[in-house]
Design brief:
Organism: Trichoderma gamsii
CATH topology: Cathepsin D, subunit A, domain 1
Keywords: Aspartyl protease, Disulfide bond, Hydrolase, Membrane, Protease, Signal, Transmembrane, Transmembrane helix
CATH architecture: Beta Barrel
Low-confidence stretches: 1-24, 48-55, 57-61, 351-364, 438-529
Structural class: mainly beta
Number of strands: 33
Family: Belongs to the peptidase A1 family.
Largest sheet: 7 strands, antiparallel
Number of domains: 1
Pfam families: Asp
GO molecular function: aspartic-type endopeptidase activity
Bound molecules: 2-acetamido-2-deoxy-beta-D-glucopyranose
């Protein structure tokens, strides 16, 4: 921790708990013959201060985003950007003063800015402009926007340079506190990748940095420092078994997305159970820019019921932390491949104030409150970070396929470069065996809950007591007690006919009292829990 830069030091003040991770977040990008491996780090997203419930505190402290460092211009100006498979463009310089909270504003200022006047390349620009909107269209509280103008300049990843890459520089933005590197093709123009300008993956292939337009995504767990994006390659030391090739399918409006059809959905506790998946509920976008997984109620309810989850009345679902520590998984099937998401990854731990990164969840006591990393949407379903970090994904734009395996970590990299053609992604086995699939959680305040049933309408009043706070959480006070009223009668209420009209699926869950579902307008908390799926308005 001695040689931290000024920037890192500031970040540490904001996220002291993550000091160790932040310090080592960005080892240099590595290039080999035909590939470029860029380390992906996790950055804690500091939360909003002011009026909030203890539940909000728990959730907010779960939140972090996956980021990489890039160099823009000559000499390189280092900027940290969020890695987003839910959008296509690279842009930098958000208006930090419009960040969702003061802490995020401070953090925003530590992530670096690009000043074209300080680049001697020289850059081309500014030219053109664009407004980009992000969020879940069925949930206005998730929506953010940026206005950008374009520049073309050198992009550096370690020693590797991509010349004359077009990217956005913000002229104004709302609710964003970091730049974004989109990894998806253009939502309207699709896989050609050179319209409205050559997107980064396309340029890399054009300039021979990589042989074909392929990248692998290995997000790993919050406490791990080994995640990576590998352009033009895949790392056999980061998955188990074979890679299953699945066709990339359009999003639910027919637009181009990095989406696939889910084949099965299940849960393993004592034994595997499989749930019925209606045809309207199979399309899932793979979106690293979205923290939580968002599914239709018909698909989500059986999982929530099997977990015994309770609705907190604000659109989130919680379970006793003992469930998180149980040796179970939520199972997402893609063709013949099943990616098992350990409960310890799928359920967000409250941890303890020193951050429970031991990997066994031992910081949770069984009275603690833990949140399920799954919420409801009536729009596009999204497998967010809570699911993606359990998988290894190789995205092949040229063949419009994604190759999927169970992620693991079994030692130092064993990178295979991907060539070109229809079988570009080699049919290689991962080096890891099943025992290597580890899961760890993130730290945050610990809250305990006492529940009582009272009142004529059958409501449940839940009293939350925050028993410990993470160091960085300036606004968090121990002993704060908040009550939440959960209206069980609302379990069947849904404002959206399209969400309930698909029927099926939710039949035989065990708990009578759980699974209260309210797909209603959610609070500002979601602004913090980013959903960086590009919003499209197909004209
Ligand atoms: C940018 O990052 C690189 C390596 O990550 C480092 O060598 C360089 O000094 C940094 N530049 C600035 C201006 O901080
Ligand atoms: C660099 O990119 C700009 C914007 O796309 C383009 O107008 C220009 O011709 C490019 N320059 C070179 C040398 O390729
Ligand atoms: C994906 O699912 C949709 C809806 O069930 C179906 O129409 C489509 O053919 C499927 N596509 C692939 C490639 O499996
Ligand atoms: C693959 O790349 C080689 C060398 O650049 C090129 O000659 C060949 O035509 C490419 N093959 C395909 C199928 O794109």
């Amino acid at each position: 921790m001695r040689s931290t830069t000024m920037r890192t030091t500031l970040a540490l003040l904001v996220a002291a708990q993550y000091a160790e991770a932040a310090d080592a977040i960005f080892p240099r990008a590595e290039s080999g013959d035909g590939y470029l491996s860029i380390p992906v780090g996790t950055i804690q997203r500091p939360h909003k201060v002011g009026k909030r419930s203890a539940i909000d505190a728990v959730l907010e402290n779960m939140d972090f985003f996956y980021a990489i460092e890039i160099g823009l211009g000559t000499p390189p100006q280092n900027v940290t950007v969020l890695v987003d498979t839910g959008s296509s463009e690279l842009w930098v310089n958000p208006d930090c003063s419009s960040a969702p909270s003061q802490q995020q504003e401070q953090q925003c200022r530590t992530l670096g800015q690009y000043n074209p006047r300080r680049s001697r390349t020289p850059p081309v620009g500014p030219f053109g402009r664009e407004e980009i909107n992000y969020g879940d269209p069925s949930d206005s509280s998730t929506q953010t926007s940026v206005d950008i103008t374009y520049y073309a300049d050198v992009l550096s990843f370690g020693r590797t340079q991509v010349k004359n890459q077009t990217f956005g520089v913000v002229t104004s933005s709302e609710g964003q506190s970091q730049g974004i590197m989109g990894l998806a093709p253009d939502v309207r123009r699709g896989f050609p990748g050179d319209e409205p300008y050559s997107l980064l993956l396309n340029t890399m292939a054009d300039q021979g940095v990589i042989s074909s337009r392929v990248f692998s995504l290995d997000l790993r767990h919050a406490s791990s420092q080994t995640g990576a994006i590998i352009y033009g390659g895949l790392d056999r030391s980061k998955f188990i078994g074979s890679l299953e090739a699945r066709p990339i399918v359009p999003g639910i409006q027919g637009e181009t997305r990095l989406a696939v059809n889910l084949t099965t959905l299940g849960l393993t506790l004592d034994q595997p159970q499989s749930f019925k998946l209606g045809s309207a509920d199979t399309n899932v976008m793979l979106d690293s820019g979205t923290s939580l997984t968002r599914m239709h109620s018909a698909a989500a309810l059986p999982i929530l019921e099997a977990l015994g989850a309770q609705d907190d009345g604000e659109g989130y679902f919680y379970v006793p932390c003992s469930t998180r520590n149980a040796a179970g998984s939520v199972d997402f099937g893609f063709g013949s491949k099943t990616v098992r998401v350990a409960f310890s990854d799928f359920i967000l731990s409250a941890g303890d104030s020193s951050g429970d990164s031991s990997g066994d969840g031992s910081g949770d006591d069984d009275n603690s409150l833990c949140y399920v990393g799954l919420v409801l949407t009536t729009d596009q379903q999204i497998l967010g970070d809570t699911v993606l970090r359990a998988g290894y994904f190789v995205f092949d734009w040229d063949n419009q396929q994604v190759h999927i395996a169970q992620a693991a970590d079994c030692g130092s990299s064993d990178i295979v470069a991907v060539s070109n053609g229809t079988d570009a992604v080699p049919n290689v086995q991962g080096n890891c065996n099943a025992n290597a699939a580890t899961a760890t959680g993130t730290g945050g305040p610990t809250a305990t809950r006492a529940t009582s049933n009272n009142g004529p309408t059958g409501t449940t009043t839940t009293v939350f007591t925050v028993t410990s706070c993470p160091v960085f959480d300036i606004g968090c006070k121990t002993g704060v007690v908040t009550t939440q009223t959960i209206g069980q009668a609302e379990a069947t209420a849904s404002p959206s006919p399209s969400a309930t009209g698909t029927g099926g699926g939710s039949g035989s869950g065990g708990g009578d009292e759980d699974g209260g579902v309210r797909p209603q307008a959610l609070t500002w908390v979601f602004v913090v829990l980013a959903t960086l799926a590009l919003v499209i308005n197909i004209a």
